Amino acid sequence: MKNIFLNTLFLFVSIITFAQTSDISISVKDAETNEPLLGATVYFEELEKGAVTDFDGIATFTEIPNGNHIIKISYIGFKTIETTINVGTKKEFAFKLESGGNELDEVVIQSSRSTRTVRKIPTRIEFIGAEELSEKAVMNPTNISMVLRESTGIQMQQTSLSSANTNIRIQGLDGRYTQLLRDGFPLYGGFSSGLSILQIPPLDLKQFEIIKGSSSTLYGGGAIGGLINMVSKTPDEEPTLDIMLTQTQALGSTANVFYSKRNEKFGVSLYGSSHYQKAYDPEDDGFSNLPQTTSISFNPKFFYYPSEKTTFWFGLNGTYDDRIGGDITKIESGENGIHQYTEENLSKRLSSQVVYETQLDSVSSLNIKNSISFFDRKLTIPDFAFDGKQTNTFTEINYQKSANKIDWIFGANLYTSDFDENDNATLQRDQTDITYGAFVNNIYDISDNWILETGLRADYNTDFGFFPLPRVSLLYKNDSGFSSRIGGGLGYKIPDIFTEEAEFINFENVLGIDKSSLNAERSYGINLDFNYQTLLFESVGFSINQLFYVTAINDALLLNSTDNGFFQFENATDEILSKGAETNIKFTYKDFRWFLNYALIDTKLNYLAGNPQKPLTAKHNAGSVLMYESEKWRIGYETFYTGKQFLSNGTETTDFVTMGLLLMRNFKFGSAFVNFENFTDRRQSKFSPLVLPPHDNPEFPEIYAPTDGFIFSVGIIIKPFGNEDDD
User: Fold this and answer.
1) Cα separation of 211 and 226, whole Å?
2) CB 664 within 8 A of CB 675
3) Do domains 19-97 and 110-116+120-130+229-721 have the same CATH topology?
4) Carries keyword Signal (predicted)?
5) Phi-psi region of 384 (alpha: psi -120 to 50; beta: other; left: phi over 0)
6) What are the structural domain ranges in the chain?
7) What is the pTM of this model?
8) 3-state SS class at 76
9) Domain 19-97 carries which CATH code?
10) Percent of all residues in the chain with a pLDDT value above 70, rounded to a whole number
11) Cα(first)–Cα(last) distance of the chain, in Å?
């Protein structure tokens, strides 16, 4: 009887306690400044009740049941926290949020050459982080083209149907005006440029940094249209092992493996990739839309940490790549009758990187780096071969000093490039270039709201002379979510024969560079952008970036025909003028993200009568990406619109829309995924022929739309050391 009474009493007290509620307040402040955060969201997940902080950073709630509750506190630009509070024990709770949330304010951008974060750099830099890179790696595990193609204002221009050679275009400007970097090293220029995008797998990269517009002051010649810096993953104390296997319905198989680990003094990262693609002809016209490809890459890096302030690392990168496209019958069975045409690109590259970084004191550091890259490529078509070797070297030393409101960077570098064509070639187009450079860059906090960046580079090329390259950028930011940047500078490009026009005709009958009669290409450009981020309806994150730009190129390098059947390079008599606008909008709600973008690209060739639009450049482009991401699932739906373009002969092409769908499920062992790329099967052969007769010596029209069509892939990512998002 006594036990029944005690149990009844305990149950009665528990019911009364549970039924009790409290009115509470939750204070949210900036952890760095201790200032209240207006507009932060506080959400009780189980109760489905939320509130937004007021001017004093306080959110109030009434009639919250006593007991433990999980709350989520989020604010754009800050890290979201999820914690448990005990209502009833007290009525006031206080939390502080750290910067570095949704808008990546705390990400350090390496291409800026400073240790500042995104929010405090006047130069406009677009950032692609590890999460988005992992999505694109699933969509295309063989190379980085997917990452770049879906960035606003960037076009991947395929120059060959047979070998799938592809160049990157930023804001309508040819690929030779974009400088590719990896960990700050110039990467894959000259003879290798048409294959560079296709030979960089994405699995061992942790972030992309894209600067649009002239960036020659920071990194020297070639960065007229902009630069792309790919930052590699580095080893951590916890070991990492990622194994990624992918198979497509187009008979493409890819395997990627990445491993890294470090201890107190030493670290290592090992990356290997292999890819095999069978020749693929989706329209059954007898010619491949994807070449038969065998590609193998290996990239080991070794790290030494003699102290907490010093890092030394050494890396090697080796690639073997063989691509054969053209007549399917010849590829599979050998030459037979009219089945004679193939194009083969056989390339081998080996590069080294050495970096020494040391913190001299609390405000200054010293960096020394060197790279040597060797590239051997043979391009073969019936009755013609273009065969050569290219060796590039890059050496740099820079000193950085960061004070409370001012950052300085001083540096000097040496860049050499040597192309040696096969001695048996009829036209000997060897070219050697040596460029010395020195630069200084300064970032100064005028006030809490205004930051100024100025820089000056002086380059001297032994053949083309002296190039002074100033630049200036100004940033305004406030605490209400608004910021704006304006900046501009000068650029230049040393002429070489490796242009898109020369690549299109396989360098056949293209005369070498006459340094005595040609001028280096020079440019000037300016960017202006506006950013705003806020909360809509108390729970929807919203951000918008609006960019306007102008870039002009003088003495542009043109390939013109001669009376005796050859092609020679000349400087344009007037400028190439590229101007336009880019709009990027982002919505976030719980586990959903929606990205919208639009690019207006108006690139005029003012050296031609009537100032026509640059061929193969769509004036209007738009895109939509809807993502759902939870601990278990990642689902993405993409739609991209490409507007009408003009061919070199003045013909106007059709516009088109491509769509893609990604489904990924996370498990404890890793992830499994399926990807439907271009599932509406938009390809150029549905609008116009990809191959023109005769069959034994075909002509290939310019490429303005996808050539491979719908690609379905399935794959698995195995993480033996555990998955961050398991079930």
Assistant:
1) 5
2) no
3) no
4) yes
5) beta
6) 19-97, 110-116+120-130+229-721
7) 0.83
8) coil
9) 2.60.40.1120
10) 92
11) 47
